Amino acid sequence: MSWDSFKDVASGRVNKHQVWRQATETMIIQEANNLLSSFFGATILNTAQAIYFKNKVLSFAILEDKSEQEITAKRAEFIQVLNQKFQSEVVEDLYFLH
Q1: Measured at the alpha carbon of residue 40, what is the angle toward residues 45 and 93, in degrees to the nearest 5?
Q2: pLDDT tens-digit profile of 17-68?
Q3: Which of the listed residues 7, 10, 38, 94 has the most CB atoms within 10 Å of its CB?
Q4: Which residues on adjacent β-strands are paired with residue 50?
Q5: Residue 69 and residue 75: Cα distance in Å, rounded?
Q6: In terms of DSSP bridges, do strands 57-62 and 93-97 run parallel, antiparallel, or are they unpaired?
Q7: How far apart are CA 51 and CA 21, in angstroms?
Q8: 4 — phi, psi (to 5°)?
Q9: In the chain, how long is the greatest CA-to-CA distance?
Q10: CA proximity to 60, closest of 80, 78, 81
Q11: Rounded CA gap, 71 and 15, in Å?
Q12: Of 59, 48, 52, which is closest to residue 25 (Cα–Cα)?
């Protein structure tokens, strides 16, 4: 096997890994937003949305303090249900961006 072939194989594996990670992050964000509406009603999506996921921390964009308070009040239950959907501990904490 030539060096160029090895480099192509290694590059392909890295790209597949990154694509898989990005797809998983997107699925977690989408599921979190679905869960938000089922926990708090569809109107909360006007003032709060999951927007970013990295290192097991799910970040929300928050427009009203009331939305953050509602999510914080059910934080542990929200994380537990989200993790159950993925059958592993994908989310450990929530972070709020104002």
Answers
A1: 80
A2: 788 888 899 999 999 999 999 999 999 999 999 999 999 999 999 999 999 9
A3: 94
A4: 60
A5: 10
A6: parallel
A7: 15
A8: -60, -40
A9: 61
A10: 78
A11: 35
A12: 52
Angle separating helix axes 65-73 and 75-86, nearest 10 degrees: 70
Do you know the residue count of the chain?
Answer: 98
68 residue type, one letter: E
Picking from 20, 28, 34, 42, the residue whose alpha carbon sits closest to that of residue 94 is 28
pTM summary value: 0.82
For residues 1 and 29, give the distance between their C-alpha atoms in angstroms, rounded to a whole number: 41
Q: Are 91 and 28 in contact (CB under 8 A)?
A: yes
Extract the tokens encoding 61.
């964009």
Query: φ and ψ at 48, to 5 degrees?
Result: -150, 135
Alpha helices in the chain (DSSP H): 3-40, 65-73, 75-86
